Amino acid sequence: MIIHEEGYVYNFNFHLVFVTKYRRKIFDTQEKVDTMKAILQRQATISEITVSQLEVMPDHVDMLISFKPKYAPSNIVKNLKGASARIWFKQYPETKKLLWGG
Fold first, then answer.
1. Is the pTM of this model over 0.85?
2. CATH number for the domain harbouring residue 87
């Protein structure tokens, strides 16, 4: 789908895979999967990112996203990973013990 915006036209998608540290199975319940999906969707909306597909597996997250060309891909990834991790660790602080040994 070609997107026409003021000043530019674009049609690109990025496939992102975020893997948990040491491939630990963090998203092991439906509640945790739904929470991570909601966090990522909310952050994407705030950052003007279109999420075409989003799948949360026990040890990784798959996303197919598109965003305006004025944003650098590295900044988008940094934004999604950083913001989602901060929110996640506030809601599930016990996760840090699984990842970093406490």
1. yes
2. 3.30.70.1290
74: domain range?
3-100
**Ordered DSSP codes for the chain:** --EEETTEEE---EEEEEEPGGG-----SHHHHHHHHHHHHHHHHHTTEEEEEEEEETTEEEEEEEE-TTS-HHHHHHHHHHHHHHHHHHH-TTHHHHHH--
Structural domains counted in the chain: 1
Query: What's the one-letter identity of residue 22?
Result: Y
pLDDT of 37-64, one tens digit each? Answer: 999 999 999 999 999 999 999 999 999 9
Compute CA 93 distance to the chain's CA centroid, rounded to the nearest angstrom.
19
Beta bridge partners of 9: 4
50 close to 35: Cβ distance less than 8 angstroms: no
